Amino acid sequence: MTEQLRILIAKPGLDGHDRGAKVIARALRDAGMEVIYTGLRQTPEMIVEAALQEDVDAVGLSVLSGAHMTLVPRVLDGLQQIGMDHVKVFVGGIIPDDDREELREMGVARIFGPGSNTQVICDVVRKQLTES
Amino acid sequence: MNLVAAALDGDRYALARLISLIEDRDPTAQDAMGALFPHTGRAHLIGVTGPPGSGKSTLVNALTQRIRKLGRTAGIIAVDPTSPFTGGALLGDRVRMRDLAGDPGVFVRSMATRGSLGGLAQATNDVVKVLDATGFDVVLIETVGAGQSEVEIAKTAHTTVVLEAPGMGDEVQALKAGLMEIADILVVNKADRPGAARTARALEMVINRNAPGDADGWQPPILQTIALDGSGVSELVQAIDDHRRYLCATGLLAERERRRIEKELLGVMERKLVDRLVSRLGRERLDEWVERVAAREVDVYTVASRLCGTD
Fold first, then answer.
1. Which end of chain B has the least Cβ crowding within 10 Å, N or C?
2. Which residues does residue B141 pair with via DSSP β-bridges, in sequence order?
């Protein structure tokens, strides 16, 4: 049996719009991955804990609140602290161009803005996870 | 076997890695299971099953909070279905278990069925053993949303809790064989909804007139809960404990364990034999036989006898 790709889709922070996260979760499921969906209002600590217990290959964070520069680094740090720095972190949502560069430097694998094609997202995720 | 030692020592990431190896049927998993096995047999295994939307995850969330209040630790396995078309799965049970986050006495793992029917994944039994061996007092196993025949859980769990929600069918539904029969404890969840008392009465009829469980002498209690606010949950934990004591006192626990081991052993033998036969035969020859059966040249029983050498 080959290794099944597992990915956590989470919404950190307080904004209540999870349509995007659900669309992505569904698309990744249809692309043959096991998607663990955690739902709304997750703290970075909850997301890191879930990533550990579920032993995922990647974490997808959906942030629409504008708090990405606070929330995303806390997830990255948390993963690093528990020795899961091999886990790829993807970010979706409304991320201003200025912040993208900084997030990438912190270690975010890829950022998907509004209007991203779900097929492209699935391909990118699979490629990144199977290449390394 | 570093991973096993680390997991036994309380390393949660090692525990999570071990579960993945077992799920992916990694060749090293068998040795790991062998090393873990002597540490198993202590946890109480509780199955929670019922139709989709009856509140299984929410009840597991509430049950676990109660169990933690009593000072016991809990490992949770939440199973959801794999798509038969893409192999993908959406595992969403954690959404209802957010109250358990941050508790070091709880470990939640979502599992996809990966093609097995019956309500559990093929690896579920082994994952149960990992959680048992690593010291969780209770292992809760939540099945996929069950219809009428997803009854595998009864072979895995010591205590099987079957959930119903009000208004899901009349007495005739309850009289049918299958899911209802495997219940050690019946729960009408969402008891604040209209029709709860009627559903409980319908279940009463099943228990009283139609219980093969009579052979065990255990009368499954019928409880009402509201998992969302925790009503009735301490009574449910009480009933689970009562059932555990009953199993121990009557020697049923040991007897069930033996039945389960026999089933498991036969299952593993079957897989190993089939794997061996198929690898000896080779994929191409197998395809050839499939073609011949498809062309109606020969039937599957004849081919199987030939290939298994039981002719």
1. C
2. B47, B77
Residue B256 lies in a domain: no
Of B206, B228, B250, the one marking the end of a domain is B250
- Closest approach of B146 to chain A, Cα-based (Å): 20
CB contact under 8 A, A26 and B90: yes
Q: At what angle do helices B233-250 and B56-69 cross, to 10 degrees?
A: 80
Looking at the structure, tell me whether residues B199 and B229 fall in a common domain: yes
Owning domain of residue B280: 262-308
| Cα-based angle B216, B219, B225 (whole degrees, multiple of 5) | 135
In contact, A18 and A11? CB cutoff 8 Å: yes
Q: Which among B23, B90, B95 has CB closest to A29? A: B90
Give the C-alpha separation, A40 to B27, whole Å.
37
CA distance A129 to B167: 45
Shared domain check, B207 and B295: no
Q: What single DSSP character describes residue B251?
A: T
Q: DSSP per residue over B45-59, as a string?
A: EEEEE-STTS-HHHH
Nearest Cβ partner of B88 from A32, A42, A54? A32
**Which helix (H) or strand (E) is B263 found in, with range?**
helix B252-281
Q: Give chain B's domain count.
A: 3
Among A1, A25, A32, beta carbon nearest to B25? A1
For B131, the closest chain A residue by CA position comes to A53
B-chain residues near A44 (CB < 8 A): none
Query: Yes or no: is domain A6-131 CATH 3.30.930.10?
Result: no
Contact between B101 and A34 using a beta-carbon 8 Å cutoff: no
The Cα–Cα gap between B194 and B175 comes to 21
Q: Cβ of B90 and A46 within 8 Å?
A: no
Q: Residue B176 above 60 pLDDT?
A: yes
Does one domain contain both B217 and B273? no
pTM given for the model: 0.90
Q: Residue A15's pLDDT is what?
A: 82
Domain ranges of chain A: 6-131
**CA nearest to B104, candidates B216, B234, B11:** B11
Percent of chain A with pLDDT over 70: 98
Note whether A49 contacts B91, CB cutoff 8 Å: no
Distance CA B126, CA B45 (A): 13
Per-residue model confidence as pLDDT tens digits over A55-92? 999 999 999 988 999 999 999 999 999 999 999 999 99
Q: State the pLDDT at residue A1.
A: 42
ipTM rounded to 2 decimals? 0.92
Flag if B91 and A37 touch (Cβ within 8 Å).
yes
